[in-house]
Structure formats: structure tokens, C-alpha cells
Amino acid sequence: MKQLHRISSALARLGMALILVALLVPVAAAQDPATLRELAVYPTLILYNGKVASMDSNLTSYQAMAVRGNRIWKLGTDAEISPLAGPQTERIDLKGRTVLPGLIDAHTHPHLWGLWHLGAKYDKQLDPVFLHANNLDEIRSKLGPAVQKRAQELGKGKWVSITIPWQLEPDAMAKGVITQKELDRLAPENPVLIESGYLGGFPNGMARQLMVKNLGRVVEGLRARYFVPHDIILRDRVRDIADFLHEEMQENSSYGLTTFGSHIEPLNVIRALRLLDEQERMPMRFAWVHRPGFTLAKDPAEFYRLYGDIVGTGSEYVWNMGVGGESWGNGCTVLVGLTEQVRERDRRTACQTVPGFRDFDALLAAVKSHLRPAILHATSDGMLDGAFQLATEAMKGADPLTLEEIRKMRWGFEHGLRIRPEQPAIAARFGFYMSFQATQYSRERLRVLEDYGEKHIPWIQPAKSWLAAGGHMILSTDAHVGALSKDGEEMIQEALIRDWPYRDSVWPWLAFYVTRELQGRVWTPEERIDRISALRGWTSWAAEYILREKELGTLEPGKLADFAVIDRDFFTIPEKEIWNIKNLMTGLGGKVVYRSPNF
After folding, report:
1. Is the CB of residue 430 less than 8 Å from the CB of residue 372?
2. What is the pLDDT of residue 168?
3. Is 51 left (phi over 0), alpha (psi -120 to 50) or beta?
4. Which end of the chain, N or C, is less packed with Cβ atoms under 10 Å?
5. DSSP character string of 490-507
6. What is the rounded distance in angstroms from the CA atom of residue 127 to the CA atom of residue 123?
């Protein structure tokens, strides 16, 4: 009987096991390997109780977003996303705030702007003396003592930088107030660089010798402001340059910026960015344009014929987006000046954006090698004409490019300061992208008013006309967003941001194109654009410009989790309030890199 009982019990247990197997098999079958893998890993970050504006093609909004590692995993309602949290998931209550894709400033130069307020921390030679003067006589009387005092303070062989008022620099140079001979007399044992605003860079004899020794040639103007600090003064200190760039980028991340676009000339800046990337210390992403060949090569055309197509290569944090000699031409125009002085100046300004000129031929060689031109100045209608001719020439001769190949390159141009009414349609045909900056508008409107008259104001950055013609538009700053010292604001920043009082927020650079309001006046109201287009100029369209639209620019599953949390609803507030938006939080690759004390 006992044996029979054991057999009966065993059969009962076997039957129960078979029943359990029968019950579990459908459940296991329903959980395919992909589902099991998904359930095995929790999100690392969840943002909830907010308005997550994806900026996708349908302008879809969500309540919550889940991030796994450095990429967006899921978007949905709080009820859909919150239960996905695991024991290690960071959860952030958005408190009803709006989340946007991380903002992309596709034309700015942190390796230049940062020197204005951080340079002295890394080397006293990077700290300029600000020479306040109201006229040329004051420059004459103050320059000598300032140069000699600074040379004595720093010692023999050290770089002396003197910054003079930008508005006095042209006359000071033209009328011989500042000469190489005089600078050599004042500081015979020091390299001296006279700077004006953000543009000027005039070297004395010793400075020129050091430039030739370190760079192979003399560089002046803005080029000197790039090369002297990074490739001469900090020549053997790439780690210091990396720390400096890290500090400057950290500041900018507080504004909701997650990606920069810039040309790079100093070779040490490229090395420093690579070092930061290797050390996993990049607080922002950096899309860069190669420019040294245009500045330093004896034959830029030959240089870029041999350079090879590196466009788009790099990492998730640092990559190349093209080549270009930014100021590849000049301000030639069909406009007729109001005064004989302006007309004579324009007659002397022969257009250089034509075959036979050094930079035009170099760009043509680069394009023929399938290198993408980017961050090229388009500061006049004549330069845009040159761009059209460049594209036309590229479709001729040996190995001609097709129109479709040129369109796919996404040639990138900057500023759009004088655009004739018929030019947007031509640019659209070639697939050109144009980057507008409100700071550049604030300067150019005064210049056009004075030189050419009110009727040509509509030629300045006609954003709506550009879009209506089918053109590609992005928005950017081309400026130091944060406030500088009093001297820096008056003598450096003013030269770039004339009549632009906005600091510590990028939103005025967007708001201007929605309202076209500046200094109490609405400028060409017919060129106002809607707020969605303006935001795309900082997000999805900007991602196209920097060649990363598959990774950045919208908040969609699989894309890099770069985001900004702002203090009000961009989509519903009155247009005038857009100027006052503040950033509360910035995320880069799923990690919070900035959080306001007020959030």
C-alpha cells in the first residue's frame, strides 16, 4: 500500500508540474527575446510631470521621457513611463516645465570668446591691458606708457597685448598713430600685439618673428587673436587649453546649449578637444570646420586636393563638419553708397569671390575633392554671387559634380547681412544653408542706414523670404553669451554686440526673429518668422547643418539624450515673453550637466 501511495503521489506531482508547464509556456512564448532584454535593463533617468516637446516632424509632445544610458528609450504619459523605473533610476519631477531638445549653437567660437574672461587664469600674457581713449591724441599719449609698463611687469620675451577702442582702430592705423617701428621702440625685447574690439591684431617686429617661427607666416587681425594664444603662448600646454575649453563649455551648458559649431584654426585647439574626448570630459559636443589650410598653407588649393574627405568623421562628442576659409572674400555689393566716400570705398573693393583669387580656388579644389564648405561668410550680396559661381564652376571641367551632389553637401554660409530679393531662390536651388545671428543684425542695420539708406534695410537677414523660397535657415549667436567685465563689455564685447544689451541667455537670439524688435523699433516686420521655425533653427535644422540630424535635434527614441528644461512654455507664452526665457536644467547624453539653484 505504501508503494502504491508513493506512486500515486509522484503521479500527482508530475501532473501538477505538467499543468504549471502548460500554464507558463504561453507566457514565455509571449515574452520574445527582445522583450526579455528590455525588461532586464531599467532606464537610468526618467523625466516626468512635464511637457516634453520632441520637435519631431509632427511636433509631438509627451508628459515623460525615459533615458537608458546616453540615449532616449521611451516617451509617453506619466502612467506609461513612471512604472519603468528601477532601483537605480534617477527620477526628476519637471513640475510642469517644458523640455526641449538640447540647443545647438552652430556658429560661435568658444576658443576665442573664453579668452576674454578666462585667459588670465591660465597665463598672464593672455590678459590684455585695456587702453581707454576718446580720440587719437589720447591713444598717442597713453600707448607708450601702457606698453612699457606691461613689458616691465611681465618681463623680457613675454607677450604684451594692448586693447584699444575698436572705433578708433582704423584711423589709428591709417594715420600712423600705431606703427611697427614705434612698437619696436617701446618694447624692443617683447612681442607686442595691438588689439581692437574682437577683430584687430597688429604685431610688432618680435611678434612677427615668433609667428614665422611657430606658424610659418605672419598672421594679423582676427587670425592673430586665434593663433597667438593657443599655438604660440600655450604652444606646449595642450592640457591647459583643454581645461580652459572645458571651463568655457561648462558655462555655456548653463544656457541650455549642448552642441557648438565652429571653425578651428589653432592646431592646439583640435588637440585639446581630442584630449577632452579621450578623457570623457566633454561638457558639450563640438562640430568643427577645418580652416588652417586656408590660413597657413602656401597653396591652400593643393592642400585640400590632398586632404581627403574627413567630413562627418569623429566621435559622438567631436566631429568634423567641413572645411572653409571663413572670410573668403570681401563685402563687394551692387548697392550704391549715399556719399562719395562710401561710393569710392566700394569702387576699390573688387570682388574676390571669383576664379583666380586664392580662397576661391582653394574652395573649388576642396569641393572637387568632395569636401563640404561650411561656415563661410556671406556678409554681402556679392559674396553670395560668388557662392553661386563657385557651385556653378564645381559642376564644370574634369570630374564635375552634379547639382544633387552639391545639394547633399549642405554648403553652409553665415550672417546673410545683405541679400538681394532674387538671391534666396538661387540659394535654395543649390541647397545652401544660411546661419543668421541677431548680434550681426544689430550692427549691420546701423551700417546700412548710414551707408546706403533705409530702403535697403530689408536686405539684412530676410529670414521669412529665405524660408519661403525653400532655403535652409539656422540661428546662432557668434558671440560670448555671458557677461564680461566692465572693460570687456565696453572694449571687446561692444564691437561684436553693438546695441545688443542681452546677456546670460540665448533666447534673445531666437526671439528677435519672431518679433524683429530691437531698440524700440520693429525692423522689417514682414520678415518675422513663426516661433516653431525659429526653434527649429536651434534644434532640428541646426542638427542638419552640423551633419548630425540622425542623432540630435529632436527628442525621439534612439537619439542622444540631450535636452534643456526651460522656465515657461515656449509654445503658448506671448511672443514678447520669449525674450525672457531662462534655462533651468541641461542634459547631455542622459546626464544632468547643469541644474539651476531655482529648480
Report:
1. no
2. 87
3. beta
4. N
5. IIIIHHHSTT----S-SH
6. 7
Question: Distances from the Cα of 524 to the Cαs of 147, 420, 456, 530, 537, in angstroms?
Answer: 46, 14, 10, 14, 19
Q: Which three cell numbers stand for residue 291?
A: 580652416
pLDDT > 50? residue 4: no
**Cα separation, 251 vs 260, whole angstroms:** 13
- Give per-residue burial for 216-227: e unless 16+ CB within 10 Å, then b: eeebeebbbbbb
pLDDT of residue 41: 82
For residue 18, the Cα-to-chain-centroid distance in whole angstroms is 65
Q: What is the dihedral of CA 292, 294, 298, 299, to 10 degrees?
A: 130
Check: CB of residue 493 under 8 Å from CB of residue 130: no
The span from the CA of 65 to the CA of 45, in Å, is 8
What letter would DSSP give residue 460?
S
Distance, in Å, from the CA atom of 64 to the CA atom of 82, rounded to the nearest integer, reads 8
Three-state secondary-structure class, residue 590: coil
Beta strands per DSSP E along 58-211: 61-62, 64-68, 71-76, 90-93, 98-101, 103-105, 129-130, 160-164, 192-196, 202-203
Cell, residue 258: 549642448
The band of 32, judged by pLDDT with boundaries at 50, 70 and 90, is: low
What gap in Å lies between CA 559 and CA 414, rounded to an integer?
A: 27
Grid coordinates standing for 228?
Answer: 597667438
CB within 8 A of 434, min separation 6: which ones? 378, 413, 414, 416, 427, 466, 471, 472, 473, 474
- Cα–Cα distance between 74 and 84 in angstroms, integer? 10
Distance CA 548, CA 544 (A): 6
pLDDT, tens digit (0-9, with 9 covering 90-100), for 40-79: 589 999 999 999 999 999 999 999 999 999 999 999 999 9
Q: Residue 200 has what DSSP assignment?
A: -
Average pLDDT over residues 580-594: 98
CB atoms within 10 A of CB 267: 16
CB 531 within 8 A of CB 571: yes
- Predicted local distance difference test score (pLDDT) of residue 261: 98
Cell numbers standing for residue 337: 553708397
Q: pLDDT tens, 437-483? A: 999 999 899 999 999 999 999 999 999 999 999 999 999 999 999 98
Residue 337 has what pLDDT?
A: 93
Beta bridge partners of 61: 53
In the chain, % helix, strand, coil (3-state, to 5) comes to 45, 15, 40
Dist CA 537 CA 433 (whole Å):
11
Task: Sort residue 197 into left (φ over 0), alpha (ψ -120 to 50) or beta.
Answer: left
Give the mean model confidence (pLDDT) for residues 570-592. 98
Give 509-540 pLDDT, tens digit per residue. 999 999 999 989 999 999 999 999 999 999 99
d(C-alpha 537, C-alpha 11), whole Å: 72
Residue 135 has pLDDT above 80, yes or no: yes
